[in-house]
Amino acid sequence: MIINANAKISSSQLIDIFESSGIHRPINDSLRMQRMLNNANIIYTAWIDDQVIGVARGFSDFSYCCFISDLAVKREYQHDGVGRALINKIRTDLGKNISLVLLAAPSAINYYPKIGFESVTDAFKIQRKV
Ligand SMILES: CC(C)(COP(=O)(O)OP(=O)(O)OC[C@H]1O[C@@H](n2cnc3c(N)ncnc32)[C@H](O)[C@@H]1OP(=O)(O)O)[C@@H](O)C(=O)NCCC(=O)NCCS
To answer: What is the position in ligand 1's atom list of the atom closest to the CA of 84?
Structure first.
């Protein structure tokens, strides 16, 4: 398995990973999905041969902070270290001066502490409508 920081993927590949992972994202709205791909500046992908099996999508100023919006691994490759490898590669590339922040899905709340995240009580959000 290889982690790639620069690979271009299509919105249909992104949709395929989201659908197969079980993560809830607006996969039926192709224009919105295309914007999600076009405007993110962190798209790390995990590959086995020519098949993309996982993705971490986010935004960083490459100076101070990084928000991880989506972490998803195709179901058949879950629990095999792919999610951890994607996050570790981002951490290594961004370096120690950049904080990583994310919102966990309910099913992943116990996951993030296992890969180095601390739970915080001082985070706030304004929830999107859809
Ligand atoms: C959550 C997800 C990204 C984890 O990726 P992964 O590649 O399967 O996880 P890893 O193999 O890196 O797991 C690392 C450790 O966490 C554990 N783990 C995996 N998923 C977990 C979960 N949902 N809850 C708690 N622990 C979990 C693994 O067993 C492993 O434990 P170990 O170190 O004791 O062996 C992936 O399962 C997924 O895509 N799930 C569906 C989408 C989703 O919920 N994404 C998160 C949105 S916030």
So the answer is: 12
